[in-house]
Every structure is written in structure tokens, then in C-alpha cells.
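Field log, afternoon session.

UNIT: design team B
ACTIVITY: writing a sequence onto a fixed backbone
BACKBONE:
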């Protein structure tokens, strides 16, 4: 008898809820980090940075943590150029160099080894730390190259990285340089 009474009570709750004429939909605002959308002709709209996109490069789809990406094909070989920025200092110089080394299948180096790989360059008034790495000769990164320029500016660390087949990367160094030369930052 108790089971039957409980069954009737629960059924009445469900049935009384079914007499509504209207469904109410509510929305709750959620704060998402706005990711910039890259324009094909140049830079990131509504951003503090602008550059001239490399001519003849295919724009890559937008992905998280990257402001822009481009790809250049040369026969069966290719290279990618990416631009990204992160707030504050993004690790030590040695940590960044070793991250790039790992991407190229190379063993990590100590601080002195990292410093030896870095060239200081001033381009359009900005002080860049530039690193070029050849892939490990005995693995999937043989004949690959990575060329990156890192810049600390306006409370962010900016990364301009080109990687891919060594012949394409070497041939595209002037285009990579052109992106850096055309950098403009809004006054902050």
C-alpha cells in the first residue's frame, strides 16, 4: 500500500508539471576570452599589432593561441609561418630555446648553450631574439628548419616562427623578414 501511495504521489508531480503552455528559455552570460580573427590582407583587427601578410602564402585556419598562420608550398615541400603572443614573460630564454629544440628532435641545452644560439637583432626599432635551428639529422626532422624571432613588448611576449622543409624556410627568409619589418604597434 505504501508503494502504491508513493507511486501516485510521484506521478501527480510529473503530471502537474506537464500542464504548462509555454517553454521558458533562459540564457546566462558567460565570459569567454575573445580570440582575434586574422584578416587576409594584414594583421589582427582591433589588435595592438599590425603587419603585412606574406604574399603568396595561404592563410591557415584560426586556432587558439595563434594570432595568425600562413603556409607556403613549393612542390611537395612546405613551410608554416605563425604569429602568437602571450601575456608577460613566457618562460626563460633557455626554456623557449629548449622547447624549439625539442620540436626539431634535438637535445636540450643549458643556459650558455641557449645564449650561444640566440642572435640579438633590432628590426624597425624593436629588439628581437632570433634563433635558427636545423632538425636532427637522424629522424623525422632531417632536412627541416625552424626560424623564430621573439619580442618582449607592451607586457607580452610575441613569437614569429617559421618552420618546415629547410629549402622552403631558407627561400622564404626574406618574406619572414618582411613581416617583421612591417610590424606596427598601436600606441599604448
Amino acid at each position: 500500500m505504501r508503494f502504491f501511495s508513493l507511486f501516485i504521489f510521484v506521478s501527480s508531480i510529473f503530471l502537474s508539471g506537464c500542464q504548462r503552455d509555454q517553454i521558458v528559455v533562459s540564457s546566462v552570460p558567460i565570459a569567454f576570452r575573445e580570440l582575434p580573427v586574422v584578416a587576409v590582407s594584414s594583421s589582427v583587427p582591433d589588435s595592438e599589432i599590425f603587419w603585412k601578410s606574406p604574399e603568396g602564402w595561404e592563410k591557415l585556419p584560426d586556432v587558439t593561441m595563434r594570432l595568425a598562420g600562413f603556409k607556403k608550398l613549393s612542390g611537395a615541400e612546405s613551410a608554416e609561418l605563425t604569429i602568437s603572443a602571450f601575456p608577460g614573460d613566457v618562460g626563460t630564454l633557455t626554456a623557449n630555446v629548449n622547447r624549439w629544440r625539442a620540436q626539431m628532435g634535438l637535445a636540450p641545452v643549458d643556459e650558455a648553450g641557449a645564449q650561444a644560439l640566440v642572435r640579438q637583432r633590432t628590426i624597425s626599432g624593436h629588439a628581437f631574439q632570433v634563433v635558427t635551428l636545423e632538425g636532427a639529422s637522424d629522424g623525422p626532422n632531417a632536412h627541416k628548419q625552424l626560424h623564430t624571432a621573439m619580442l618582449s613588448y607592451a607586457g607580452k611576449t610575441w613569437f614569429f616562427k617559421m618552420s618546415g622543409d629547410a629549402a622552403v624556410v631558407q627561400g622564404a627568409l626574406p618574406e619572414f623578414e618582411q613581416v617583421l619589418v612591417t610590424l606596427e604597434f598601436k600606441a599604448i
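LOG NOTE: The chain has one domain: 49-185.
NEXT ACTIVITY: expression trials, pending approval
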